[in-house]
Request: fold
Amino acid sequence: MTATNITAADLPTLLAHDIAVKVAGIDCDGIFRGKVMSKDKFIGIAQKGFGFSSAVFGWDMQDVLYTTDAKISDPKSGYVDFIAVPDLNSFRRIPWEDNIPFFLVQFMQNGVPVVADGRSMLKGVCERLEAADCQARAGVELEFMNFQTPSQEGYDSKTHNLAAFLETNAPAALRPITAGSFSYSATRPVAFKDYFWDIFNTSAQFDCLIEGWHTEGGPGVYEAALKVSPALEMADKAALFKFLAKSIGLKHGITPCFMAKPIHGQPGSSGHIHISLCSLSSGKNLFARDVQDPDTTYPDAANLSDLGRHFLAGILSALRDIMPLFAPTINSYKRLVENYWAPVNISWGLEDRMASVRLITPPVCAPTATRFEVRIPGADMHPHYALSVLLMAGWRGVEKKLELSVPPLSAGGEEPQRLPNTLEDAVRRFNAKGSIARELLGDEFVDFFTATREHELRVWREAVTDWEFKRYIETI
Reply:
């Protein structure tokens, strides 16, 4: 379990019976990068931090150096070290690794946070809100498809190297753990009940508590609704849950897949974010309206406070410019298509699951639970980036007192503006001079993340897909 207000002086007692510690930071694709070190070394560097190669922000998820200079990690410098500073309050033990102590880190350079470090980014946003007597709270729902360990020749069951297996086998050779689509099934989890309950129970031990756990649409799909927490804790838990699920999957011969759209013709895997603001001093939900406003332009917002309306307007005004932080991969946009329970336009509405932003207020919930559900992100999102930019966009609406200019879907009328439907289009808007992304995130981060996505686009353009090979091998 995690603890709070841990200091370096507490570590000798906290780690008294350990010989090693595991540490990890999170790269720009939301992937853990870390190592194991001796307990004595960890205690010695706990306050000042330790060297960690800046290449962690200089290469992609396959350790291929970016083809576009990402600048934050400069090849001309020889990828000099950043300083990784352990966040002692992130402490927990890893149940499936003999309870080894585990800490998350933040990356620093010359005494200041590395711009690309999502944990530092979100921490800064939360501190800014706290200065205004606000605490951001969030919940994340992660859907993911689960595949059985291949039985075909070519798969090494000891190393679980799926990439090698897929060198000689088509993706269709992978089979989901259950066939067909059966959301909220009472029976399907029984087929792999050891795996199903191992994830649920281990999540509690790993301080990554699941509030809701069930099957979802699509073959072999589960959904985990993580318990609502302060925003930085929630982003950590979303990243940690993926780490947990993949680790538990190895034990059970199952590969959990957090791609946004693993299989053509099936629903994608979402990463819905629930978000609210509460007063630090009083605990009051700041999105809840004390008295219903019958004269509001849009009845859907009758129970939403003025601050909440400004916050919603801020999110809606920014959506098209910040899409790469919700949908960061080529595959992300295969999920954002019509008729698959994923939004395709700038839209909102009371209890409307077809909208980009679902408004949840009384009478649907208690005033204390008033919140927004942002339904654009997929399971492939970087949770720290996504939560950071959501809070930034909403708070921009509060500071500028933006008004709702987009009617709810229930109002009918003109077709809402479309969201970018490819990574290329999304990056173009994100990177444009004067974009809201640049206003919110700053030029240095936007230039960096643009370079990483341009690299992803280049790798994709050079790839020869199964579709084109099958289509053209004989006929062209």
